[in-house]
Write a structure and sequence with these properties.
There is one protein chain. By secondary structure, the chain is mainly α. Helices cover 55% and strands 9% of the residues. A two-stranded antiparallel ribbon has the order 1-2. Helix 3 crosses helix 4. The longest helix has 29 residues. It is globular and about 30 Å long.
Length: 108
């Protein structure tokens, strides 16, 4: 996989961007990625409902993001990703979450 830093997110594909530890991470909610997320997290509609009600767990957000990373860097572990999310804070990751949730509900 590439380092994930060479291409900007494509809004037409519902992609979102996180900047974690100075590294641009593009999130692409492809069908395969969302299926993988749903296998771990359960129904995506339930996930969206929990998010809308302020009940989305940090672990759920991290898992969703992990599954939809486009071009995941080879040197990035899931634990490192979670720590980088924590360092960015909720304010730093919420805009990407909103984009992904909207894409899950609307599709392309």
């Amino acid at each position: 996989m590439s380092d994930g830093t060479n291409a900007l997110p494509n809004a037409l594909r519902g992609e979102a961007e996180l900047v974690l530890d100075g590294r641009r991470i593009v999130l692409r909610p492809s069908f395969a990625a969302l299926v993988a997320a749903e296998e771990e997290l359960g129904s995506l509609f339930d996930l969206v409902e929990r998010a809308a009600n302020g009940r989305l767990l940090l672990s759920e957000m991290a898992a969703l993001f992990w599954h939809v990373i486009r071009d995941r860097p080879d040197d990035l572990t899931r634990a490192q990703f979670g720590e980088a999310m924590m360092a960015a804070g909720l304010a730093g990751v919420t805009p990407a979450l909103k984009i992904l949730l909207k894409q899950i509900l609307q599709g392309r």
